[in-house]
Amino acid sequence: MCESCTRVQANPDQWVAAVQLRQHVSHRRTFFYLEQLIIKHDEAHNAIRIKQMDQGIDFFFVNRSHAGKFVDFVGEVAPIRKRNDKKLVSHDQKSNNYNYKYTFSVEICPICREDLICLEDLICLPPKVAASQRNLGPLVICTKVTNSLALLDPFTLRHCFLNAEQYWRVPFKALLSSRQLVEYIVLDIETVSSEVVVGGSKYVVADAQIARVSDFGKNDIIFNVRTHLGVAKKLVGS
């Protein structure tokens, strides 16, 4: 066993590098998905301690390179921004050795899958940036989150992908999240466009008649809407 590992076993607080993983949003869907990927790929196997924190998790490593590798993995599967800091812990004047503790602060993009985004909202993407993204919107849906965001215009099926650098250059927030979704039943549907594949998922624009599940047995309210989920017609007919 190496000297560093022996010290850690004797005192788990003797970490060298810490990764502070955060997502500043209430539901943190992307964060939970990332946790599953970390477990699936066993990317935290070098961590000597894992601590649940407010809005995230801290990972502690005995080796700076292990922490750096972990941060690289997170950046490959989620849009992040990061900051590196170091703090001098001790200095041996005789040997001129310096001991530091390193902290990697990693923030995950707050946009999650199925979030509704208003491109003209002042708290969201400015119109000039929206124009550069093939005139999407003003309303778009985030259909997939990897190391980039897939944004889909539900009325035209135009779409774009924003990587981490593009997002953090002009960060924006969601107008509504999946927590605010309401369940409806499709009564009738008619497709009005051809099929488009975005991020591995199929979408078709369709006109539909729908009713709220909560209204059944209470009233006869029916809504006529246009949806990007017209592919459901094929699923119903199959």
TrEMBL record:
Name the principal localization, coarsely classed: cytoplasm
The record, for Pfam families, names: NMD3, NMD_SH3, OB_NMD3
Domain (Nmd3 N-terminal): give its ranges: 1-108
Which keywords does UniProt give here?
Answer: Cytoplasm, Nucleus, Protein transport, Transport
Q: Does the keyword Repeat apply?
A: no
Start and end residues of each 60S ribosomal export protein NMD3 OB-fold domain: 181-230
Domain 60S ribosomal export protein NMD3 SH3, by residue range, is 117-162
The processes (GO biological process) annotated in the record are: protein transport
InterPro entries to which the protein is assigned, alphabetical: Nmd3, Nmd3_N, NMD_SH3, OB_NMD3
Where in or outside the cell?
Cytoplasm; Nucleus
Q: Provide the Gene Ontology terms for cellular component.
A: cytoplasm; nucleus
What does this gene product do? Acts as an adapter for the XPO1/CRM1-mediated export of the 60S ribosomal subunit.
Q: Which family does it belong to?
A: Belongs to the NMD3 family.
Q: What is this protein called?
A: 60S ribosomal export protein NMD3
Q: Which organism is it from?
A: Abeliophyllum distichum
